[in-house]
Specification:
Blueprint (H helix, E strand, L loop, with lengths): L8 H18 L2 H7 L5 H24 L17 H12 L11 H16 L4 H13 L1 H13 L15 H20 L5 H23 L1
Helix pairs in contact: 1-9, 3-4, 3-5, 5-9, 6-8, 6-9
This protein binds protoporphyrin IX containing FE.
Length: about 220
């Protein structure tokens, strides 16, 4: 699904600033392979395991800052993916053995960064919410069909991660998130730190995908 993006404002700035990095991440061997349906359960569960750790840290931090000015407008628990990721992992692995698998180095560093921001610079968490949730609500929807087909998954089994409700609901969530970004922007003097943090979030994903491709 793709929603119209306003041509001004923080949402627009983030999109423009990260467009090149988005293309790079999309073209990593891991993501390109996933899109072509070249993934097996073990590799896909490996991705979800790392995302689960990332989202646990992100959503802990966002929950902690649900009333913090400059963060609160983008804290939308209906977007949270933590529970869906655990359910998908259980469905794919059939048990909870995945919880013992080691995390990629990029994920451990990503989690540390999120914890650092939560403690010292919560306003930059907005960049990470942007990169993950708008990504899931956009390109994630194309991935859902490919993943279900290549892993032979029926219904929402194993693909709850991509499930935000019907397309009208998704559209509403995108609009609310974008409106939240603009409320945040109205409280900021300078948005550069946010666009830099969003770029570094994409770089962290690129590193993660490189590690997962080599695993
Ligand atoms: C094969 C993988 C991917 C595909 C096919 C894909 C595709 C897309 C598409 C079609 C859009 C909508 C663009 C538009 O409305 O102009 C989009 C937006 C987005 N994607 Fe991806 N994407 C992929 C991976 C990722 C990843 C891994 C991330 C995060 C690390 C990500 C983050 C985003 C973000 C933040 C947006 C919103 C951009 C904006 O409108 O501000 N994407 N993606």
């Amino acid at each position: 699904m793709s929603a119209a993006v306003p041509s001004t404002g923080l949402g627009h700035q983030l999109k423009i600033a990260t467009a090149t990095m988005h293309r790079r991440v999309e073209r990593t061997a891991f993501m390109a392979g996933l899109l072509r349906g070249q993934v097996d359960r073990r590799r896909y569960a490996g991705l979800l395991h790392n995302l689960q750790a990332l989202y646990a840290a992100l959503e802990d931090a966002l929950t902690r800052h649900a009333a913090t000015p400059g963060v609160a407008p983008v804290v939308m628990p209906e977007l949270f993916r933590g529970r869906a990721l655990v359910a998908d992992l259980q469905a794919l692995a059939g048990d909870s053995s995945w919880t013992h698998a080691p995390l990629a180095r990029a994920t451990r560093q990503y989690v540390e960064r999120l914890q650092e921001l939560s403690a010292a610079k919560p306003s930059l968490l907005v960049a990470h919410a942007y990169v993950r949730y708008l990504g899931d609500l956009n390109g994630g929807q194309a991935l859902r069909r490919v993943v279900a087909r290549s892993l032979g998954l029926a219904g929402s089994t194993g693909t709850l991660f991509y499930d935000f409700g019907d397309s009208a609901t998704q559209q509403r969530l995108v609009q609310r998130f974008r409106a939240g970004l603009e409320t945040v922007a109205a409280q900021l003097k300078d948005t550069h730190a946010l666009t830099d943090e969003a770029l570094s979030a994409f770089e962290r994903h690129e590193q993660l995908f490189e590690e997962l491709a080599a695993a």
